[in-house]
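Quick one:
INPUT:
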């Protein structure tokens, strides 16, 4: 973070903005001290193309253990994964897109389910179709908070579902792995400390 910021100017600008807003809402005699605000000073984020985060341990396990069909299907799923790891695609479409036999696709999907990379669910409206979710220990598309919540909900809803890949324990699925403060709270605290210097 750059420390070339004039804190006095930032404070005055925030105060003036709040004073103007307060005057509009409550009339000219209202006090700004009734409004509580947080100023977050941060660097501009660079936009990224669509992406998902693949975890290194999972990638290492897959590269050493997956056969060709399962690996091709997994790479396709990583390319097509939706928000919070949802994949809505039928086996016939997978076979057509990857130029594979339906039998190979079925075998590959079965292998990915056996080692806990995929979780299969019935489609809500089409009984002939299956929807898939990639295990959050393998990959995640979304923010870290929603990943943590998804892991917690899976553990609460069905104790039979194992999130450990290849039956190996994933440390980041343990609640103790996460710090008590979120990254956002830490940034706000850092900015508050900076402005109060």
């Amino acid at each position: 973070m750059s420390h070339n910021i004039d804190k006095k100017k930032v404070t005055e600008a925030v105060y003036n903005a709040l004073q103007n807003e307060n005057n509009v809402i409550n009339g000219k005699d209202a006090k700004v001290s009734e409004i509580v605000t947080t100023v977050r000073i941060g660097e501009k984020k660079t936009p990224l193309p669509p992406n998902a985060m693949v975890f290194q341990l999972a990638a290492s396990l897959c590269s050493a253990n997956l056969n060709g069909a399962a690996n091709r299907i997994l790479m396709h799923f990583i390319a097509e994964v939706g928000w919070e790891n949802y994949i809505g695609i039928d086996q016939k479409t997978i076979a057509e897109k990857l130029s594979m036999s339906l039998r190979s696709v079925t075998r590959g999907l079965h292998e990915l389910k056996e080692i806990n990379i995929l979780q299969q669910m019935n489609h809500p409206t089409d009984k002939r179709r299956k929807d898939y979710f990639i295990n959050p220990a393998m990959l995640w598309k979304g923010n870290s908070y929603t990943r943590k919540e998804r892991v917690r909900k899976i553990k609460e809803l069905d104790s039979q579902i194992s999130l450990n890949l290849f039956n190996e324990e994933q440390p980041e699925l343990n609640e103790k792995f996460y710090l008590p403060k979120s990254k956002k709270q830490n940034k706000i605290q850092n900015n508050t400390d900076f402005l109060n210097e």
